[in-house]
Amino acid sequence: MPVTVRSFAKINIGLCIGPLRPDGFHDLHTVYQTIALHDAIRVHAKRGDGIEIRCPDPRVPCDQSNTCHRIAERALRALNARAHLTIEIEKRLPVQGGLGAGSANAVAALLAIERALKKSIPAEERLAIAAAVGSDLPLFLVGGTILGVGHGEEVFPLPDLPPTICVIATPEIGVSTPKAFADWDLLASENKSGSSRGRATAADNPPPKLTVLSSSDRMLEFSRAVSSWLSGLTQKTGRPVSGVPARGRGRAETPLLDLVRTGIENDFESVVFPQYPELREVKCLLERHGATYASLSGSGSALFGLFRNRTMAAKAAAKLRRLGIPAQVTSTLTRPQYWKKVFDC
Prior knowledge:
- Strand 3 (about 50-55), helix 1 and strand 4 form a beta-alpha-beta unit.
- Helices cover about 35% and strands about 25% of the residues.
- The chain is globular, with a radius of gyration of 20 Å.
- It is α+β, with helices and mostly antiparallel strands.
- The strands form two sheets. Strands 1, 2, 3, 4, 5 and 6 form a six-stranded mixed beta sheet that branches. It has a four-stranded antiparallel beta sheet with strand order 8-9-7-10.
- The chain has two domains: about 5-160 and about 335-340, Ribosomal Protein S5, domain 2, CATH 3.30.230.10; about 165-335, Alpha-Beta Plaits.
């Protein structure tokens, strides 16, 4: 019997990029949030050896470069098991869209392999295996709302938040994450040397001059924003809170909107929007049609908007689709919802 596991997407509620490290990674601070959109992963295990990846989507590699293949190799070693594994990937999420689809697929494959072989890997080792395969894999071993630090692989569960309605827009544009990081390094270098290049925003007015802040100062600002938000949360999971100051824009109705209104943002917008102005326009459309907060997810090209209710979200998604931009209404997932639905196939 094959084992089927749902592979949920994530969005980034703010993403702060730090300096390039000696190991080739950038320091990152981000808040990950799992959402209800998902792929499906099916694992067949039988006697023998080998790992076979199957996916009808031509954009998905079916060789050893696939994250599912890489994590399966490590899983078999960790479990001290021999088996021929066939991993089928049913794609519903965009490929390389900033929603963590490939990483989520790998973690779903890991969970399915454990079930198929009726063995389990200790939680700490499982996290280490995930981090060895990719920076944003460990978040999918936590689910819900998660703080990511290091280069994104160090994950800490944040208090569970009530589900929030959101629209996910997935323009058919390929954004290279390595190039986005390189462009960020160039922007930071120009900023440090006194360049007047501006930060890209979703506003219709010309972007303001980029404030000169060191990487460490900016990372500290992000940490303080998250800390101030956490200080306003009640101890009971899922209860709404009164909120933290929202930079003159009132107080948010839910904890998640409180968080985004602390002023955290996605640094990738500064370099991706000038390269792809149509993505900036999608963000503007989300805001104009009722999103209380809209942002690029990861380095894109997916964007999301948070909405107060499903009716407003459905109207915004319909408007985007009329303009030829794929868009879906979904919601964020709490940690208990995430783990219930992962195996509820």
